Amino acid sequence: MYFAHVGGRLATGLRDVTTDLAALDATGWWAVVVTYEGKVTCARFDEVRPAPLPRPAGPWPATLRWTGSLDRRAYEDGVRRIRDYIEQGEVYQANLCRVVTAELPLDSDPLVLAARLARGNPAPYAATVVVPGTTVVSASPELYLSRSGDVVESRPIKGTGVTAGDLLEKDHAENVMIVDLVRNDLGQVAEVGSVTVPSLCAVEEHPGLVHLVSTVRARLAPGQGWAELFAATFPPGSVTGAPKSSAVRIINELEPEPRGPYCGAVGWVDADRREAALAVGIRTFWIERDLIRFGTGAGITWGSDPEREWRETELKASRLIALASGQA
Known about the structure:
CATH topology: Anthranilate synthase
Oligomer: single chain
């Protein structure tokens, strides 16, 4: 069965699937998944209603064995490489990620995983999307883009700790860098003078950790739609770095595997009401035939300590991996 459960709504009755972001400015309610590499899946559904997650109907393995794209030594070496690039003036900050993978029986029901995350790691932008060619289960805490009419908003996360006392000056500096980047991105499609920052470096609590979160808001200029919004702002600044072009180049050099939906966009668009909420695809699992994948990463600045950044990736992943593996 193809469906999407996102924003507290259950969408069924799949009508069509397109890779054209401009369709989101037309009609209908859409579930949206865009990979970090830019593969677009927009699925329009005929029936959308407020509803809880459907009950799982299939199995899930008792345990999962995970392997990583970067081990600890390779990840810490990557942090040092980014610090070298910062010293050379090529980048101010870059997000370094790794992907973990486990084998998964083909009959596994993603609703089992979605239910575990809903109980054990509730998230403001939780989403489960099962459409042709794409299966994603996300517990994202981060808003990439929301829309209400012509008003768009982004809420980048930068800075993570177990408690607020763990947050460093480096975390605040990193957040401000990304806020400036998001302001610039939105400014490309916004009315002149409409870009504001209503909240800067607010501490937000989530299961097992805290984040620094800022809010950037803008009003779209006439003639600017979803295709233009994505062209200006994607991939999200919080999971790339600053300057974005240099960060993306360094990420491509240092990360051995594609990120897929991780660090992309996952959410919904109601074209009729001109409303939307798209999350950054962090804390996100995706299934490819007999494999399940999950990504985790950290923002690297000149003040980064390689060991501490590795621990941050472990902190972000540990709770969700345990839930997926039946250990929590």
